[in-house]
Amino acid sequence: MNSDKEPASSESTRIRIEPNKAINAHSAHDLHQPSQLQWNNSPPRDRSDFEIAIICALPLEASVVGELFDRRYDDQVYGKAQGDSNAYSTGVIGNHNVVLVHMPDMGKVAAATAAACLHSSFQNIQLALTVGICGAAPFDPQSGKDIHIGDVVISEGLIQYDLGRQYPNNIFMRKDTPRDNLPRPRPKVRAVLAKLKTKQGLCWLQNKLSEHLKVLPQKLTETAPQPGAIEDELFANGGVTNPTTHFGLIASGDTVMKSEEDRDFIISRDGVIAFEMEGAGVWEKFPHSLVIKGVCDYADSHKNKKWQDYAATTAAAVTKAFLEHWSTDTPRAPSSDARAKESEEERTRRAKEIEILKMLYRSPYLDQKDRNLDRIRGTCEWFVSHRLFKDWQERKSTRTLWISADPGCGKSVLAKYLIDHILPSTDFRTTCYFFFKDDFDNQRSVIIALCCILHQLFTQRPALLSKTIIERFQTTGEEFARSFRELWDALLCAADENAGEIVCVLDAIDECEDDGRTRLSQALRELYSTSTKRGSNLKFLLTSRPYGEIRQGFRPLDLPGLPIIHLSGESDDEMKKISLEIDIFIKAKVRNIGRQLRLRDDEEDLLLHELMRVPNRTYLWVRLTLDLIESDVNIDKSKIVKITSNLPTTVDEAYERILSKSRNLEEARKLLQIVVAAERPLTLEEMNLAMALALRDGHQSYDDVDLKPVERFREEIRDLCGLIVTIVNSKIYLLHQTVKEFLVPAMNRSGDTKNLIQMKDRYKWKHSLRPLDSHSVLATICLQHLQFQEFGLEPQDDLLTPSEYANNYVFLDYSAKNWFIHIHESQVGLEGTKTQRGEDQTKTILKLCDADTRRCQTWLKLYWTGTNTAFPTEFATFLIISYFGFTTAIGYLPESAGPGLNWRDGTYSRTALSWAAGNGFTHTVDRLVSINNTWWGAILFERADIDAIDMNGRTPLFYAVWNRHIPVVELLLNAGARVDIEDDIGGTPLSYAICSGNDDMAKLLLKKGAQADSKESIIRTLLFASAKKGDRDVVELLLETGIVDPNEKDSDGLTLLLLQRY
Q1: pLDDT, tens digit, for every residue of 377-422?
Q2: Residue 145 has what pLDDT?
Q3: What is the per-residue pLDDT across 766-775, written as a single tens digit (0 to 9) for each?
Q4: What pLDDT is recorded for position 964?
Q5: 422 beta partners
Q6: Less packed terminus of the chain by CB within 10 Å, N or C?
Q7: Can you say how many angstroms the Cα of residue 1052 is from the centroid of all Cα atoms in its chain?
Q8: CA-CA distance, 425 to 419, in Å (whole number)?
């Protein structure tokens, strides 16, 4: 819907077009052939088969789009998710299944709601197009070309021109920080736009526009001709023109633009070419998003509804042309005839491929990349022109490039720039990436990073998902995505000599867990010692801080031909280049602030001069310092002198000043505690609810919670925490890793008392958020939320999956899957911390874990969706509290609580001890194996069966070994657990320990008497594997079994001694 145009009357929704003469452009037609695509005759199987969404705010817009469908489907067949308030039409345009969204209202908020509902019903949408009418600038401020009514504008980006702060004296300041601006279109969308903007592309697009305008009169029932130049207030004497297409920035907001003066100011300030009302609402929900609007007025007081029908039609025609040019990432499902011809083997393979891809997608890697800023033009050039980078880039061999720099020097921005612009995937190169962050566990794991790398690789190059990898997945099952060795071997298997160049970018490896980083460096060492024999072209680009332990880990890789570039620079020349690029960054930011605050040239020059005087500047310091300056609206020359004479000298000092300016310190502290303790990024809606629960007790249902409008809450976050908290795609993050290091004290931090006192006097916020306190805040929020009346009284619709059910209740997905983590991390009510608060919390835990209640079944089934396993039947209360390690709660169970100590669930036949051991809860395991007659009368005469065998022939020890819980393994072994039991596939605890690469566990089992003589072939395999890894201790222990001759050779003719040397 047009931001500058009210809806037309209902009479105008039935339209017919009298098109202009079509353009002949044979050269363009020869170049672009997507119009020849034919749609599949087979209708979609379900809503997941729809890839394209078109969103229209007005009936007149939707009417024209609907007429351009090449085929219509029965909308009732596909339906929608419960709680979805949208109405839909479905069909085919070009070669795409398309869902047309009919919005109930106009505007950004209505569009955001419609987009959220669309996402809940159609979860595989790859491209969302907001199509309709708009007001435009009379000319393109970039090219200077006139824009006529009836022309079409396509967004290259959106500007929320009415998002900002209103100050006295009618001063409005638009928010123009990276966190407030909407992200530009994704690379795939930008690539298509770039192609369409070429001379041939524009000619083809013009031809298709005229072609579709010629077809529409035959479909629509009423003539709505081009009103003609006489109706064009601005170009009345210019004659009739054919509609053309323009590309540029579009202003999006909730205000109808009718002021020529305001229009011109915004055009001058932001460089926009049009104004509309829905795009911003859709943009944040769908990464691949585009706005296509027909111009019906000039965003001024001369409104004329006569052009609305024509503008809607030209927009629809360009939309169809664009879709004929767009290709989806995954092929359409085959037709029923084609499926009938496929062999059972092929169908099975496709199912396995999909299963593998689902298992590998363990973290939203694209969102993690897009948390980082785009580079400022002119920066990062010193690196891409560096001779070592060029050498690494041009070599056709396996190589690694390691970039190290201090915090705030722009490593992640550089990595993003390289991925998107310098090293993008092409026909001969596949680029994959992962951005480590210390704020969430799934962003610290090397195993999850490898999963994401493989997911990107197999998504971009499906042929690399070979039969060998699929068979290995079938053998290992869900453990495939949990084993470093399995994932690494799959990557090496895929990177054969026919795979082309594969580039893996791993950003901030200093923020991944220590064990994972060590295993990665060892794997790279193995790779480079054998790469000459492999013939692959697998390249790694790593960034990190210049920590000594990281340098030590990669020192064995510092070989001839393996360049290591230090971003901080090792020579004066490099330091000068980096410093000059930071100056470019400062100048760009100062110009931006100058526009925002309307500074005079001399004031802007003064600000720039003072900033450039500060030594040792970093990108992060510049951003924080300018944020402090930007927040002062009533600024003048004297204030600039005052502010710049006392600039923060460090990043920590900048953080302290920003937070000290918070309008509400208590609310700021609560919000930051939630952010630093959360297990995953919370959405704006989730944080809105969490803050409401944190600031006031007594909520019993959603109706009791006074939630703020989302956009207002977004503004409040900025007022509370400034730039320190950032919002990306409606998810909340800390600005930078150094924020967490500033706020949260490190574990076991030590220092002399004098320095600690001085730090406390100087900084009120530094190290002020203790992890125990932060987790306690979130534990309280989750417990309060899960006790809402809705989850205890309202029957769950059996037609909905747990995930679909959770979509109807804000924050339920988070609280159900993470509440127990915060209980353990807060240590309230756990072993050795018995207080009145702990006792009350334990009683609440028992209430939530009562297996006979609907409340328990609601959250537990939702939690279980994340385990990728079937939900267990007969999962009694005792099993639940043991599974989650609530040791103290066991002592509060009543005698009537249920079955005995060795009760098994009905699906896996596992006992409480098996579940607790597998999840690593040492205190719970200890309580269960040392049961006495003082704590649960119902099972006084039972002892825990320490070797209870489940449906797969595995005991509790198996699960503790596989999941690397060494303290639990020691406890079970000391309690008499058998180490010689074989499961249904012949595995033993020892074989699982070494197969999973857990050498310490293998040593423990061998020392405790694990017998290895029953499986000679397994021991032989494990022995040679340990020798290749260089683990002498395990090799010696295995040789002591006498199963394998030390002089025996492997398949390559190497003895154990030679392997260890190699």
Answers
A1: 888 888 888 888 888 888 877 788 888 877 777 889 999 999 999 9
A2: 84
A3: 999 999 999 9
A4: 87
A5: none
A6: C
A7: 43
A8: 8
Number of Cβ atoms within 10 Å of the Cβ of 558: 11
Confidence of residue 40 (pLDDT cuts 50, 70, 90): very low
φ/ψ (deg, to 5) at 753 = -60, -40
Angle at 858 between CA 855 and CA 860, to 5 degrees: 105
Who has greater pLDDT, 475 or 539? 539
Strands 429-435, 164-167: pairing is: unpaired
Provide φ and ψ at 501, rounded to 5°: -80, 130
- Indicate the Cα dihedral angle 476, 478, 483, 485, nearest 10°: 40
465 DSSP assignment: S
User: How confident is the model over 867-912, as pLDDT tens digits?
Assistant: 878 899 999 999 999 999 998 888 777 665 556 788 899 999 999 9
Helix (H), strand (E) at residue 773:
helix 771-786
Torsion, Cα of 1045, 1051, 1056, 1057 (10° steps): 120
Q: Which residues of 103-116 are buried (b: 16+ CB within 10 A; e: fewer)?
A: beebbbbbbbbbbb
- State yes or no: pLDDT of 757 exceeds 90: no
Is the per-residue pLDDT at 997 higher than 80? no
Task: Tell me which amino acid residue 240 is.
Answer: V
Side-chain half-sphere CA neighbours of 202 within 13 A: 12
**Does residue 189 carry a pLDDT above 60?**
yes
Task: Collapse the DSSP code of 363 into the 3-class scheme (helix H, G, I; strand E, B; otherwise coil) and give the result.
Answer: coil
Which positions ≥6 away from 899 have C-beta within 8 Å?
A: 876, 878
Distance CA 624, CA 638 (A): 21
> Can you name the residues that pair with 129 across neighbouring β-strands?
54, 290
Tracing tokens 């395990």 back to the chain, one arrives at 1034
Domain ranges of the chain: 10-325, 342-570, 574-647, 658-769
681 residue type, one letter: P
Enumerate residues 6+ apart whose C-beta is below 8 A from 26: none
Distance CA 418, CA 846 (A): 52
Rounded alpha-carbon distances, angstroms, from residue 840 to 139, 264, 828, 835: 67, 62, 10, 9
The three-state secondary structure class of 530 is helix
For domain 10-325, say whether CATH 3.40.47.10 is its number: no
Q: Report d(CA 932, CA 942) in Å as an integer.
A: 9
End-to-end CA distance of the chain: 68
pLDDT tens column, 797-816: 566 788 888 888 999 999 99
Q: Does the structure show a pLDDT above 90 at 435?
A: yes
Average pLDDT, the chain: 79
Number of H helices, E strands in the chain: 47, 18
- The pLDDT value recorded for residue 352 is 85
Ramachandran angles phi, psi of 826, nearest 5°: -80, -20
Distance CA 708, CA 692 (A): 9
CA distance 232 to 228: 7
CA distances from 631 to 43, 176, 756 (A): 55, 12, 31
Q: For residues 138-149, b (16+ Cβ closer than 10 Å) or e, as one string?
A: bebeeeeebbbb
The SS3 assignment for 760 reads: helix
Pairing of strands 725-728, 429-435: unpaired
Q: How far apart are CA 927 and CA 751, in angstroms?
A: 37
Closest CA to 610 of 635, 633, 574, 634: 635
Q: What is the pTM of this model?
A: 0.61
Class of domain 342-570: alpha beta
User: Of residues 490 and 597, which shows the higher confidence score?
Assistant: 490
pLDDT-above-90 percentage for the chain: 27
Confidence category of residue 76, pLDDT binned at 50, 70, 90: confident
Neighbours of 1047 (CB within 10 A): 8
What residues have CB less than 8 Å from 895, skipping those under 6 apart?
Answer: 936, 937, 938
Q: How far apart are CA 721 and CA 693, in angstroms?
A: 19
